[in-house]
Amino acid sequence: MSSLTPGDLRLKQDRAFLGHPAGLGWLAFCEFWERFSYYGMQALLVLYLSNYLFLPENIGNVAGIDALRAFIERATGPRSPQQLASAVFGLYAGLVYLTPIFGGLLADRLLGRTRTVVIGASLMALGHFLMAFEASFLLALACLLLGVGCFKGNIAAQVGALYAPGDKRRASAFQIFMLSVQMAVILAPIVCGTLGEKVAWHWGFGAAGVGMLIGLVVYLAGRRYLPPEEARVKTAVRREGEARPRMTSQEKARFVLLIALIPVLMLSIVGNQQFNNAYPLWSQKHMDLLLFGFQVPVSWLQAVDALISTSTMVASIAFWRWWATRRREPDELTKMAFGALLAACAPALLVIAAGSIAGTNEKVSFVWTLGYTLINNLGFANILPVGIALYSRAAPRRLEGLMIGIYYLHLFLGNSFVGWLAGLLDEMPGTEFWGLHAVLVASAGVLLLAVKFLFGRVLLPDEQAPPQGVQKGGLPA
């Protein structure tokens, strides 16, 4: 039996933004500027470090760099400027997906989401501006990491809180939310990258900082359209002397299952993440990038991917809206399994290309990039945003921010795993290398279907879940 509160009913009736609550528009626009700042800085970081900051004549200006270099080289051995730049970038990229866990705890247990998001945005803006000074480089990275941790999971949790339990708009809401990210991915390298490489490095980082300040203003301006903050449990205990509410058995089961899904989600993204790692190296050797007499830079393949991924996100949103008007819309696990099985066809396509290269000893056409990105992004549009929707909905009450932070762990593990896989590129034939990726992604799809059939009822919305102790086996229709 449904038990929607007046607040749930109000949110269900709010369709001011493309059929969704008005707050989604404000959060998506804020996320656009945050991602603009992030991807703008990321586009410049390795180039800035390897081409300027970590050169012998400049690296001594960075406060604390000797200690960091000693820490890295203790594990890897001596590093050249480029190798050190890659190592520092790898640490930064990995920690970006770990700090949201602590940001979620900070919001859930102490400060609340609004204050935590504001602190995160402010720290990120400060970090971008500190990049203008060589001495404060490591302090700038620390501010950026802490800022992302405070911001990322909590703003995604606020998107989920716009919807009542069981509201089918939730999954498409996260696709719209991710669409704003895709737009930032296209625009940020063009603006910040051009300023950084053609004018001065600090102009690029400064543009990223300005973008983050705009995001903060947007967030504060739209605050009244967002869900109200729940009272902190700590305050309630102090005022009423009650014990901290414990998770129900259903919430505990969901919590355990969502954590157990992380390795599966890690496998589901290896084909997508490899596009930024091994794929450019493979393309440089084996792809004909001469277009109408112009040698296309390999880095432009990333722009092609961003444009296609934006289109496929829109197509996915439109498809599921069309589907919902004709038949029952599938749950999140089913969508994610479908997405993984489809995405597995992208590296499988490259098996054919690699076989052609081996047979003819000639480079393949740029068309293979279009095929890879189209198929991969059609699948990926049903993995990452739908996964966020699942974790925000199924998270135990008062732990939504933490659960989103845990969800991002699969990106940390996935990127680390992809880095190891990329090392096999020169050791395996192309057919085996891309075939391995196809098998890994497809296995994630199969495992997600298995979880759906074996444990799907655990993740049902509360009003659809069977009463405890009544249904022992079987699955809902």
Quick overview:
This protein has about 475 residues and is mainly alpha-helical. It has helices spanning about 5-15, 20-55, 55-60, 65-75, 80-95, 100-110, 115-130, 135-160, 170-200, 200-220, 235-240, 250-260, 260-270, 270-275, 280-285, 300-325, 330-345, 345-360, 365-380, 385-395, 400-405, 410-420, 430-455; strands spanning about 290, 295. The chain is globular and about 55 Å long.
Spell out the helices and strands N to C. Answer: HHHHHHHHHHHHHHHEEHHHHHHHH
Number of strands: 2
| Integer average pLDDT | 79
Rg on CA atoms, Å: 23 Å
| Oligomeric grouping of the chains | single chain
- Overall structural class, as computed from helix and strand content, comes to mainly alpha
Instruction: Give the strand order of the largest sheet, numbering strands 1, 2, ... along the chain.
Output: 1-2
The helix content is over 70%
- Compute the number of helices: 23
